[in-house]
Amino acid sequence: MIPSAHGLFAWLDLPWDGLFSTQGIMIMLLVAYGGAMWLFLSGAPKVFTVMVSDLEQARQFYENDLQLPLADVPLHYYYNYEQTLGVASMDPLYIPSALSYGAPKRPSPSDGLWYQLKKSTQLHIISGASQGEKNRDRHVCFDRECLEQLLLRIQRRHLRYKIRRDKPLNFLVKDYQGQVIEMAEINPS
Predict the structure, then answer these.
(1) Residues sharing a CB contact under 8 Å with residue 119, sequence separation 6 or more, in sequence order
(2) Is 20 among the domain residues?
């Protein structure tokens, strides 16, 4: 004798009628969507953003002097994930010049440069920093960890550098062409 489905699952004591109702299916779909988003975002690389005063000079520095490999733009940047969550209002680097909630815009080369800093860490270089003193090219970042990783890379590549201040971190580096670049941590407070 084959037990009925009701008898087979009776020990679970679940309201199966409610689970397979319209409301139950919607809840299951929302849970599945939340799980998929969590997997998608937990696999996304950590991204550090650096603002520079001269994007072309920065390209030469990061590609030639630091020899950072080019990186693909992470998918969550393609779909403006930060703007849809409202996270853009917390970080001034992510505020677009004109907020648009229409179709997502694909990043273009004018949106900056992308480099692989470590296995799951990327560096996003954008323009927007002012020139430093003595018209030095200036690279600024809100994240100390980013500048510390860049300093380690500079040390490994045997570039000349001078730490000017530890808190907030500020140092000068001389590229292979003899140009001095100021690297500065911007303290948001």
Answers:
(1) none
(2) no
Domain with 165, as residue range(s), is 46-185
pLDDT, one tens digit per residue, over 3-14 is 555 555 555 555
pTM of the model: 0.62
Dump pLDDT digits (tens) for 88-144: 444 444 444 444 444 444 445 447 899 998 888 889 999 888 887 777 888 999 989
- Whether 111 is in a domain gets the answer yes
Q: How far apart are CA 92 and CA 129, in angstroms?
A: 13
* DSSP β-bridge partners for residue 124: 49, 114
Q: Which residues contact 170 (CB under 8 A, 6 or more apart)?
A: 163, 164, 182, 183, 184, 185
- Residue at 63 is within a domain: yes
By the 8 A CB rule, do 52 and 124 touch?
no
Q: What gap in Å lies between CA 21 and CA 144, rounded to an integer?
A: 51
- Per the structure, how many domains does the chain have? 1
Spatial distance between the Cα atoms of 24 and 30, rounded to a whole number of angstroms: 10
